Amino acid sequence: MGTKRMTSGFSDQVMGLVKSLRTDAPDCVASGVVDMSTGMLLSYETVENHPPEVLDLLAGATLDLFQGRTVVMIEDVFKERRGISNDNHFFQEILVNSENLTHLFVRLVEQQDVVAVVVCRKSVNVGMLFAQVRRVVKEYSL
């Protein structure tokens, strides 16, 4: 973890990323940023009030999706077989559909331990969702 994370500039960028995701992603009802190195939800915006424990669980669930024990084991096996020795992760984007919502999780390219989360109505055009979120995430190199 670099010293960059501790600066207010990083915090401002995270809040800007969350705001841009919230306004630019189609049918968006919530957005957030999770720090995988600490397992913390750094910032979020939502159209509804949610209990704090649900928001805490979101960060943990994001960590499990991207870097759960089994996921890391699979990555390690493939890295070993392919002769890869870097710390990059294989899972970069994950789309989850629940009963009423679509959740898109996108790992930032330059900050592999930071994941942007966008929650939209299930009626969202998934292609547009990916396009808009990728565009916004690309603009913010934290």
SS-based class? alpha+beta
Mean pLDDT: 88
SSE sequence, one letter per element: HEEHHEEEH
Shape: globular
CATH arch. level architecture: 2-Layer Sandwich
**What portion of residues belong to β-strands?**
15-25%
Number of continuous helical runs? 4
Distance between the termini: 12 Å
Rg to the nearest angstrom? 15 Å
The main pleated sheet reads as: 5 strands, antiparallel
Protein name: Roadblock/LAMTOR2 domain-containing protein
Organism: Streptomyces griseorubiginosus
Topology:
Elements lengths: L7 H17 L3 E8 L4 E7 L5 H16 L1 H14 L10 E5 L3 E7 L6 E8 L4 H14 L3
Protein name: Roadblock/LAMTOR2 domain-containing protein
Describe it for me?
This is Roadblock/LAMTOR2 domain-containing protein. This protein has 142 residues and is α+β, with helices and mostly antiparallel strands. The protein has a single domain (9-137), classed as 2-Layer Sandwich (Beta-Lactamase), CATH 3.30.450.30. 43% of the residues lie in helices and 25% in strands. It has 4 helices and 5 strands, in the order H-E-E-H-H-E-E-E-H. The chain has helices at residues 8-24, 52-67, 69-82, 126-139, and strands at residues 28-35, 40-46, 93-97, 101-107, 114-121. Strands 2-1-5-4-3 form a 5-stranded antiparallel sheet, with helices on both faces. Helix 1 runs antiparallel to helix 4 (126-139). The radius of gyration is 15 Å and the shape is globular. Mean pLDDT is 88; it is low at 1-7.
